[in-house]
Fold this protein.
Amino acid sequence: MRLQHAFLVVLVSCHIRAIGSDDLQAVHEWGTFTSVAGEDGSAMSWQPLSGPSDLPCFVHRLDQRNIKAAEYGTVRMETPVLYFYPLKPLTISVHVDFPNGRVTEWYPKASSVQPSSGRNGWIEWKDIHVSNYVSNPGAPLAKLGEASHYYAARDTDAWPLSSEGENEKLLFYRGIADFGVDLRPVVSQDAILIRNEGLETVPEAILFENQGGRIGYRVLRNLRTPVRTNFPALTGSLDSLRSDLEEELTEMGLYRKEAHAMVETWRDSWFEEGLRVFYILPRSKVDALLPISIQPTAGQVARVFVGRVELLSPSMSQEITAALVNGDVAVLKKYGRFLNAFLQKMGSGHDVAMSERARNFLESSFNRVLVESRKTACVE
């Protein structure tokens, strides 16, 4: 079954006739804001419980450390990438503000990234040289032996670029922030109540669940007033969902290869074990949370951001509790980086009955996060 209007991408094309706009035909961007819903559905402050970074080690890090791995925040800004489509080789500058957060990782080299602590951050690339393979046929792209979802984002027709001697097909950055999330889902025993606390209608959302490889999803449209919905039936096809998402992204303005690159980048993480809501941020919301300036101005600008809200269902809470008591590490592992947030939401009372095996697993997991947070990039 084709998913009608699932993952609707709000695309605003600004045709600005200014100096240089005829040369820079289009700039396309996509990314994800990830949060965890608290008891009232609002975004809670959380720290991921995970091991090694999912990025290649050549990616630059703030203060040369993986700050994002060990820091608390309400929102993780994950993998925004910018693609450029000029009509001829150009020199381009990009400045992105992050008023409620800070940029923690990026590639290629940036001219300036601020601040090193706190919020109200920004990143700037000056003198990015964008050229095609005809005029710059020998530009190698960094790629090390380790597997990474990072590389999937390169598989587009965007023009190659270089910044301070580093070559890429895109500008990549991500970070951590403290701001409220407009979509607030609250889970009860048999249903989910989703409220939109923002000023604008959320055009599309998807309630998604994966239980041991069985998946289900429910599409919700034009969320303005509170919506109460049942859990989705676990009869869906993951391959069909991925295919439909790519088609929708393409129809709404992303180039086909960009849409495929976005889904491939998130093909595991988006659809992993658990319960979550995906929703589309209105373009004006993206611009408010992440103001951007591009020089020369582009004839068309697309900014496609997906909000992801992780949920803790009663059955998940029961499963985690049993795993803590019985020392079932395999169950604890499947909740990945969100386990710490779920334990925080469930309360500290679970420590009383926690088995030694479960306690050792959690302690070793936190230690791995601390070790990862101190690792430096493998490039200067």
Q: What stands out?
A: The two ends are 49 Å apart (CA to CA).
